[in-house]
Amino acid sequence: MTSEPPICDLTATALARAIARGELSSQDVVEAHLERIADQDAQLAAFITVDADGARRAAQICDAASTPIGPLHGVPVAIKDLTDTGGLATTYGSALFRDHVPAEDDVVVARLRRAGAIILGKTNTPEFGFGAVCANRLCGPTRNPFDPALTSGGSSGGSAVAVAAGMVPLAHGTDFGGSVRTPASFCDIASIRPTPGRIPSPRRPLGWDMLATHGFLARSVDDLALALSVCAGSDALDPLSAAILNDDRPSAGRPRIAVTPDFGVAPVARDVRTRFASACETLARIADVMPSSPDCGGAIETFRTLRAAHIANSYGELLRTRRTELTPTVVWNIEAGARLSAEDYLSAERRRTGIYRSFCELFARADFLIAPAASVFPWQNEISDVTAIDGTALETPIDYLAVTFIVSLVGFPVLTLPARREASELPFGIQIIAPPGCESRLFAFGRAIENELGFSHRRPPA
Asked: Distance between CA 306 and CA 361 in Å, rounded?
């Protein structure tokens, strides 16, 4: 005789199904997750804000409805605290915005609510999302549930820990250079960074900027697909959202996958390379594997330039007027863009175009491209930045993200999954990359890897 799994161990998809069938109430599901937060978050610091009262009111509304409100009816979710939630504090991880309460939801939040999701709270992030460790002057560090001495990764670390520890089944994140993928890798969960514009950002000041996207973190591929399905769709005020070509055709026959540990340029730790090679051997059971990479020459310098320019443009005024109130990491990031010229920026865009076209050429002969989801394993929370890998110094504090930010640079969608591991090993994930618009193909292949090879979440120790 088997017992039912605890509510907090169920996926978002399973919870939505059980609530819709009347097997569970929204209120019972919300209370179970609030109890898990109360039990664990004092140690893990996944949340900056918990909205228990608001979540309970929303659960009552769900339970009183005669039919499900939407596909996520009654399912608890968490929102990264970089994204506006109407009537609920949104600090952007900064003491400057400690008391900031937006008047309305960001589009991604509004679409989650419309689908019936219940917002439990806002998850921790480094100030404005810039930092390798998920800590700021309000909260943190967010601790890894597999070893609380270790980092959760930045900058969606709060969301990753909330999902891995069962505080929510599904969490929103944002990803500029790897901010859903690195925490997912560190916390043994799955993530999706969709094609830029798939989830619109109509308030984005630079409408054609595709470096940053919304994304999701969950414990299963089905949950990621469900979340994306309710949040995707064009918005007239986001030019990227109108330009995505949908390609839902399944891959014909046995998938062809190109694999690269480093895109030819990214610094990646020896231990990560070993784990990645093992993962590729396992993938060969269900796919034809060929070592190959796009030509990514100059990609690291290109991303550094574009990222620095965007940050200086967005936050330069804060540096001029409130420098002493900003964290050192944010100051460094803004100053990195202060000396750039228009020629620097346009030269970087030219290199970026060449790298994009090299990705396109690779996908003419491969269905998917596989790479590590992080260049290192989680490190001690007391260490604020990765300054060296295997004893070799990095030129800048963001270079350890090259294995993920190269994908951001070209805007291809990427799914991450936990790689199968021994119980004694630290979590580690892989990136599965597809051409723009091919999220459905990504999810189909991800399900095969998850179900046939066991690349799936394992619960942290009690």
From this structure: 23
Helix (H) or strand (E) holding 278: helix 270-283
Q: What DSSP element (H or E) covers 6? A: none
Taking the C-alpha atoms of residue 50 and residue 76, their distance in angstroms, rounded to an integer, is 12
SS (H, E, C) 249-261: CCCCCCCEEEECC
The strand ranges marked E within 81-144 are 118-123, 143-144
Name the 3-class secondary structure at 415.
Answer: strand
pLDDT digits (tens, 9 = 90+) for 141-154: 999 999 999 999 99
What is the pLDDT at residue 275?
A: 97
E strand or H helix at 1: none
Long-range contacts of 319-322 (CB under 8 A, 24+ apart): 322/96
Alpha-carbon Rg for the chain, nearest whole angstrom, is 21
C-alpha to C-alpha distance for 238 and 19, rounded to whole angstroms: 34
Nearest to 27 by CA among 63, 3, 2: 63
How far apart are alpha carbons 92 and 316 in whole angstroms? 16
Residue 307, amino acid: R
State yes or no: cis peptide before 6, omega within 30 of 0.
Answer: no
Which DSSP string corresponds to 33-66? HHHHHHHHHHHH--EEEE-HHHHHHHHHHHHH-S
Distance set, CA 269 to CA 44, 128, 144, 384, 386 (Å): 26, 28, 20, 18, 12
Q: Smallest Cα–Cα separation from 434: which of 268, 211, 143, 192?
A: 192
- Contact yes or no for 110/186 (Cβ under 8 A): no
pLDDT at position 248 is 67
Unique residue bearing structure tokens 């540096």: 319
Please identify every stretch of the chain with a pLDDT value under 50, giving residue numbers as ranges. 1
Residue corresponding to tokens 């310098």 = 301
* Cα distance between residue 79 and residue 192, in whole Å: 15
| Residues noted as catalytic | 80, 155, 179
The pLDDT of residue 186 is 98
Rounded to whole angstroms, the maximal C-alpha distance in the chain is 69
Q: What pLDDT, on a 0 to 100 scale, did the predictor assign at position 3?
A: 67
